[in-house]
Design a protein that fits this description.
- The complex is a heterodimer of chains A (340) and B (166).
- Chain A is globular.
- Chain A has one domain.
- Helix content of chain A is 67%, strand content 2%.
- Helix content of chain B is 78%, strand content 0%.
- Chain B has 2 domains: 119 residues, Up-down Bundle (Four Helix Bundle (Hemerythrin (Met), subunit A)); 40 residues, no CATH class.
- Chain B has 166 residues and is mainly α.
- Chain B is globular and about 50 Å long.
- The chains are: A mainly alpha (340), B mainly alpha (166).
């Protein structure tokens, strides 16, 4: 019991540090990718190949002047970015990061909480993720920030629907709400994306909208709203908002890899006859590669596509994605019924 | 023993945030305190071994309904409590009605035989598999009817919200 608690604490801390480091370096990679797409170098002054750039950015954010609007709601103004950061870090608890580690003959699962409703837990966290943005945007007492917050909430609610509908097909196929079970059923090359290409596409588009990434970054659309919900924020509070976006990218990549790309499975990997711990490590690296791939897609699309207009965003969500997702559910249901 | 402390903590949190929801002057604070109440209640569901109910409670109430409330309050920009003060007789009637509801609830729970209640840890009724079986097997028709009722309400709301005549 005590070793279990110690192990879980260690694992949770490891995942926390991992999320933070990955988010830190995602900012650098994002700028490097942007430089590559626009035929320039990107940051390359701080350290070799600009490797110290995230550190420099962090120091800069810490030492910037803290500013709080005089008419802001003080408590909620601080609560906004804290909540965003907190919620961004919560999801990783339910994700299975790899097969069990075996130490002294005892199996230790590479998952912080194996809840039997893991997929719903992810959705619950997702649905409360908008509070940080809404509270921050409202507490700033600035009309642009308020508009950004209002946009964020309606966008999140609209795309959550299509997202949940696209996940229902996965639940119907696997017959389980546990993320561990969903990954276990995708062993080898039995990935869900092969059976649910439409569901995957819908989920991917909704993930962009839920993480407020371009082309759906209307809550912070700087051409219309100055800076959107974080207009009035400066220093590390702004840093928290920006940083949480990169953590969300990482975690949503992990969720997509888990649900659709087989999680930590790779065809033929379990037949190599590796010892359990090496196997766990290699599997974790496989999952990590898949997450990196999604991270690259996020950046690729951001620097390729222009931003949607707000009415286009709503039209896409309500009139295209939701009917398509319902159609997908119906088709999946009919196929499952016929195969029985 | 540990769950005992959590139970007390959650109960105090739920009561405190429910009272603060009524007492706060700003509508936004009321909405946020109500959200906190919902989280405390979701925690109670987890203690009763009903994780599914807890998570669905968070998704539906905190994640959807309260976000819509917050959205509406923000959109109308109800910064201050600008409602006109209610006349005295409305307050008295509200007090009597609320008190009667409380008395009824106390009466129900006093008459309820706690000994016959099943232990949620042994029956596992809150787990999604058992809940699904009961909903779709024993209570299929009421369940489907209630979803039709929801759909009707939604269609009605859309119809009322439409500006042009049909």
């Amino acid at each position: 019991m005590v070793t279990q608690i110690i192990y879980k604490t260690l694992l949770a801390s490891f995942i926390l540090v991992l999320s933070l480091v990955v988010a830190m370096y995602s900012t650098l990679i994002e700028r490097k990718v942007a430089g590559w797409f626009q035929d320039r170098h990107g940051p390359n002054r701080a350290g070799p190949w600009g490797l110290l750039q995230p550190l420099a950015d962090g120091i800069k954010l810490f030492f910037k002047e803290e500013f709080m609007p005089a008419s802001a709601d003080k408590f909620l103004y601080i609560l906004g970015p804290s909540l965003t950061m907190f919620v961004a870090l919560l999801t990783s608890a339910a994700i299975p990061w790899g097969p069990d580690l075996v130490i002294n003959g005892v199996a230790y699962p590479l998952q912080v909480a194996d809840v039997n409703i893991g997929i719903l837990y992810v959705f619950a966290i997702l649905s409360i993720g908008v509070y940080g943005i809404m509270i921050g945007g409202w507490a700033s007492n600035n009309k642009y920030a308020l508009l950004g917050a209002v946009r964020a909430s309606s966008q999140m609610i609209s795309y959550e629907l299509a997202m949940s509908l696209s996940i229902i097909t996965i639940v119907m196929m696997t017959g389980s709400l546990s993320l561990r079970e969903i990954v276990a059923q995708q062993q080898g090359f039995n990935w869900n994306i092969i059976y649910q290409p439409l569901g995957f596409l819908i989920f991917l588009i909704c993930a962009f909208a839920e993480t407020n990434r371009s082309p759906f970054d209307l809550p912070e659309c700087e051409t219309e709203l100055v800076g959107g919900y974080h207009t009035e924020y400066s220093s590390m509070k702004l840093g928290f908002y920006l940083f949480a976006e990169y953590i969300n990218m990482f975690i949503s990549g992990a969720v997509m890899a888990t649900l659709f790309l087989g999680g930590y499975h790779f065809p033929g990997l379990d037949k190599l006859g590796l010892s359990p711990n090496v196997f766990a490590f290699v599997s974790f690296m496989v999952l990590f590669t898949k997450i990196t791939f999604f991270g690259f897609i996020y950046m690729w699309i951001r620097w390729t596509l222009p931003r949607f207009r707000y009415d286009q965003l709503m039209k896409l969500g309500w009139k295209s994605l939701i009917p398509l997702a319902i159609l997908n559910v119906v088709i999946t249901g009919v196929v499952i019924l016929l195969n029985q | 023993m540990f769950t005992h402390y959590i139970f007390h903590f959650l109960s105090i949190l739920a009561l405190f945030s429910a009272i603060m929801m009524l007492a706060s002057k700003k509508p936004i604070h009321s909405v946020l305190f109500l959200t906190l109440t919902f989280f405390a209640i979701a925690g109670h569901y987890v203690l009763l071994n009903a994780q599914f109910l807890a998570v669905v409670h968070v998704i539906v109430y905190a994640g959807a309904i309260m976000v819509l409330f917050l959205f509406t309050v923000m959109l109308l920009n109800l910064n201050k409590d600008e409602r006109s003060p209610k006349p005295m007789w409305v307050k008295i009637i509200a007090f009597i009605a609320g008190g009667m509801l409380m008395l009824t609830l106390i009466g129900i729970f006093r008459g309820y035989d706690i000994q016959s209640a099943q232990d949620p840890m042994t029956t596992q009724i809150g787990l999604v598999k058992n809940l699904g079986k009961i909903l779709y097997h024993d209570y299929l028709i009421p369940f489907e009817l209630s979803s039709v009722l929801f759909l009707t309400a939604m269609v009605g709301a859309v119809l009322l919200g439409k500006k042009e005549q049909i």
